[in-house]
Amino acid sequence: TLDKVYAREILDSRGNPTVEVEVSTPDEQMARASVPSGASTGSREAAERRDGDAGRYGGKGVKKAVNAVNTEIGEAIRGIDVREQRHLDNLMLALDGTENKTRLGANAILAVSLAVARLAAQVMQQPLYRYLGGLRANLLPVPCMNIINGGVHARGQGADFQEFMIAPHGAPTLSEAVRQGSEVYQALRQILLAKNLSAAVGDEGGFAPTVASNREPLEFIVQAIEKAGYRPGEDISICMDPASSEFYRDGKYHLRTESSALSAIEMTDYYGELMDQFPIILLEDGLAEDDWDGWKHLYQQLGSRAELVGDDLFVTNVKYIRRGIEENLASAALIKLNQIGSLSETFDAVALCQQHGWGAFISHRSGETTDTFIADMTVALRAGHLKTGAPCRGERVEKYNQLMRIEQALGEGAQYAGLQAFTRRG
Ligand code: PGA
Ligand code: ZN
User: Taking the model in full, what pTM does it have?
Assistant: First the structure.
């Protein structure tokens, strides 16, 4: 049973405060979890509760969320069976009583939800991936590594598009995929330095060079794949998250690197041209969170060429994913725990995707901690692919390292997802 519940403020990878929770049993078994924070957040995400007290952390303090755990939430859940995850999450949802977790805060609720799951795994003497996924938890994901950061993750200095990722789907194992990704990353660094471009990194560990177009990062990446000795498209392909809600205004897409604003139809053509020239197998948030009609067109045109993933569009919420499935708008949903704010609801979102042949693309946030929960969760859910930044910066590599540990622990039983993790059709 659950005994103590304790929350504190810690720092995330951007140096902003976030919530960490410790939970324990009466016999002093203890588990800990912390929550991440986004920068290009979707407008329909669950509420991240911040103090708004300008005298502390510029208003970003999370003392109120921490206090909610230490008082109200702790009192409501003490004594429950830690294996009753669904019951725990439902209790907290009911206690909060709002649609978007605005009263207690999704950051408070999620930290408790994850810490209790980890404690339950410990009580059951199982690794987290096994506890969460049972015997089917043996599929290692393709690591989609974000090696060039643009958009708001590079403070508007780089490309318009936020993320340029490499997916080493042709590797035989996850560990080999991590090695290949790291080698391409180091090759890219050399290429940038040789061109007198900055090799300083952005929020997710990728390089953030000043570039003249959105094509240039793709060219650099193809060169880096070749320089590292791999075949673009066959061994390693490219995934892109333009995070287009960030440059969508008045029904148009405003790219810093294009002379005029583009319509959804023109954006779709633009992506189609990029797909003609580069081995792109996944496009996330190609269009904006409110552009539902545009998405329909995008899917009709490009759904057979790349996995089309909705992030800001669906915000890990079954309500919006269901609409996406009914209206045939995409082929996958991005899955971020803190967009919805509890473990059970995240599992529901993934189950809905998988029931309909959709991909579930598991994701970190741009503001992270060293917590590796998503690594175990990806294996548990057989999600087949995840993105958790470049092979650089402690909070990013720790997730990849955890996946390598899991692969080793599974031994012969481990499978690598490879190319089939990417849903293309339509
Ligand atoms: P965020 O970005 O964590 O800053 O919201 C990640 C994404 O858009 O996928
Ligand atoms: Zn995104």
Answer: 0.97
